[in-house]
Amino acid sequence: MCGIVGYVGKQKASPFILEGLKRLEYRGYDSTGVAILQGGAFSLVKKTGRVANLEREVAKFNLNGTFGIGHTRWATHGGVTDANAHPHVSSDGKIALIHNGVIENYSSMKKFLVSKGYTFSSETDTEVLCNLIAYHYAKEPEVVGENRFFASVRKTLLHAEGTYGIVTMCVDLPGEMVAARKGSPLILGLGDGENIVASDVSAIVARTQNVVYLKDGEIVRLTPKEFQITTLDQEAVSPFVDKVTWSIADAELGAHAHFMEKEIFEQPLALENSMRGRFSEDSSTANFGGLNLTASELRQVDRFMFCACGTAWHACLVTEHLIERFARLPVEVDYASEFRYRNSPLDRNTLFFVMSQSGETIDTLAALREAQRKGYRVLAINNVVGSTIAREANGGIYQHVGPEIGVASTKAFTSQILLGAMLALYIARLRDMSFSDGVTYVNALKGAPDLVREALKQAPHIKAIAKRFAHHSDFLFLGRLSLFPLALEGALKLKEISYIHAEGYPAAEMKHGPIALISEKCPSVFFAPKGEIFNKVVSSMQEIKARKGPVIAIITEGCELPPGLADEVITIPDCHEAVLPIVAAIPVQLLSYYIAVDRGCDVDKPRNLAKSVTVE
Ligand code: M6R
What are φ and ψ of residue 176, in 5° steps? Predict the structure, then answer.
């Protein structure tokens, strides 16, 4: 939540910062602002709404300075107003600050500062932090070996409880910035005569691919030509300079209307990238060197635990089904936000996984830390390289699907299912899956990108269905077995981007309650693939139809429905069980996308949401 960018360099800071904010806007988009240090003072422009509003406002000012900070906000403390937007400037005008996170003890700090004569123009915890830095800066004499500004930031952060990624500037020190993190991501971009600090690499790659991922508890002093990282306890840190492997073009819309559309259609390629180099030479199993576990260690595992949030949690549910089905081992899946407080009993031979596209979701991170605290090795399935979860996990699997920018997760979801299916295969082959079943499974997974390409050809048909049903205000999504999580995912996609009430249920469970919702005003989307449960799902459809509920049936090729049962039919390719949930995701992603577009919703930036949820 919240995107932050700081720039110290030789070029005009504001265009670069605005560009960076546009790329970070998916992180939060209530309000935005920039502060540029020029002519011995901060020029501050803040505006509610999107970066485009800020850009129009900035154009009215002459912002020529080459040092500045910018912020795009997802409100926590205080409503969405110009005053609450960041950057905040201390009441003495000395310090400017941007912040991502929540300062939990801000009210006691504020009381103290008010008693010292500091005044506040916003309701935010950030302004309190900013004034506390100003207080220490005004009060403390120069600290030996540290400049006074840096010392005052460090001192302030030692008092701060909660989470933060901050970047701050002092009016007396043009060309210098201090940034620090605890619980919110911050990345340094090392340029030629310029340095950048931002919430993620998308705001940096336009200028440099050399980055340093800051760790929790680290603080950095930046100038255009150098940077020094220490811990808050003043231990020196030797930075590891990483290279970003994707370019700015990967984070651009191209010919698509929305990132969500781009990411839906990118899925064949994303799946190819996720599986590349991860099958054995004999094509009978998967290879996951990053798990850091030997085959014999994996054979000791007798239970799996998966934790995640949102769409990633749905991918865990599919993985549960596949591991249980093919590797015959029990799997438990929990919401990360529940696991972290639930004190669940785990036995020693449990292998713990977290799944997270961003690798920054605070609840998932907390679940990882809680499991590690209890002595478990935690592995992560994660997309963003260098993210906090990737760094803190004891091993894992990178998704390699490139940046996912649409708030509604699509390509990350199908890649997580693919990797879950590959994991199921890997474990199954270490146990009792035969060589020939392994080869069949691998060939099926290798065919997934083409099957997804085939399913995507249904887009025009699904667009027409979306038009027909876009005005409805309630939907049910129903599926069984590995497609029950797809029903949950279909409902989540629809509600998050089109604001339509939708529920996902196991198809047969529908008659235990949700059937009361059924009328001609509440369409049901059914997953009815070929196989043992096809006839059972058809019976559930009949029950809906008997109550005048419209039925949208997603069937696999070769299935036949009784005439007149479904109002609309979407046919996807028939495929192996391990691939089916991937292919079945396509129609529900497209349906929710086209419904949202038809309703005129802001698909990539739905209201109240943010791409990565870094607050509890
Ligand atoms: O980055 P993560 O995978 O940890 O994110 C988890 C959820 O916040 C995320 O999947 C959310 O539910 C998406 N908006 C769903 O489209």
Answer: -135, 140
